[in-house]
Sequence to fold (369 residues):
Amino acid sequence: MLSVALTLPLFAATFAPIDVFPGDPAALQNAIDAAAPGATILVHGGTYDPIVLSKAINIVASPKAFLQITPICPFTTSSKPIISLSGPGSGRATINNFGVSGGVDGFFYCNGPEPLIVGGGFDEFWIVDSVIGATWFGLTGQAPGAPAIQTNVGTLVISGSTISPIDADTDFYPGPPSPVGISAPGSTVIVTHSSVRGGSYFAFESPHCPGPPTSGSSGTGIVCKLLFQTGSEVTGGPAVTWTCGGFPQGTLPAGPAYDANLATDIFANLTPLNSTVRGTNWQLQAITTGAGGFLFVNYDTDDVEFKPGLGWDFLTVAETFLTQVVAPGTSTLSFPIPDVVDLVGFELGLELLDFNLSLFGGPVITQIR
Fold:
């Protein structure tokens, strides 16, 4: 395997990031409220209250930070969103390296939860290197689920992340159907090197024994207008066993992976081997056929265009700042990332054009933290 070291001509941000430190759960929201559009907030780990994201800003955590699910029972929803998107109508907002803390309260007097991320108001919303999902606790009675993400942004980008909904559950039949993983019926969704699944239904006793149940299903993975995925696993909720007298009798089918007007699975000839962290070497595996390929590195990845004879292209040509010939076969590309705090939030988009296939592979989309 060939190893190639490349130098990225990175450009530091105009303004230094805004620091948020652990201790005050409201500190992240306070920083968002004080930030100017286009700013980057650097979160130094910790756990924080749910946020309202109303500005086109980058929120980057290093080390990983968490947003706390807030139970708001009884006689209301089990939990409110961890992120409410309420953008100005344009621009891009990003979260990078976040997780979810806590679970969804199943107390008897609770209704179903709200989606973990909900809303819109942005041209783009990015989720990078994050894990978004939650589970129930203390179940009594029906437990309706909710999507992980419900949005109407123009383009939703999922990069290096794991997305799963709040699954439906119950202690009696019939139970509620399980939710979709991502509900974005009017949006373009780009999923790179990530995992997204629909909600899982529950195993249960059929009320029509010895016959099968007549309702219930696992959820769809992604509902959207246009779906582009590369190097990713997008699945519906799994198939579910039903029983009679406590004995397994059959299965309900798995949910569909997606529901989209156009869905394209682009071959992945570039695979990140680690995250883009300051002070480290960012490494990717490149695979090309007999004639090798040509690498494009860019800092703008929102220009999705079909180019006849070349396939789908995600990069804005005018903003490409590095090109490199890649040898045939399998190679490791290594990019040293300087330990410069002003690089936090810097966007990187990479594509590899395979000479032999005359096709672009799926993009790598990421952000320095």
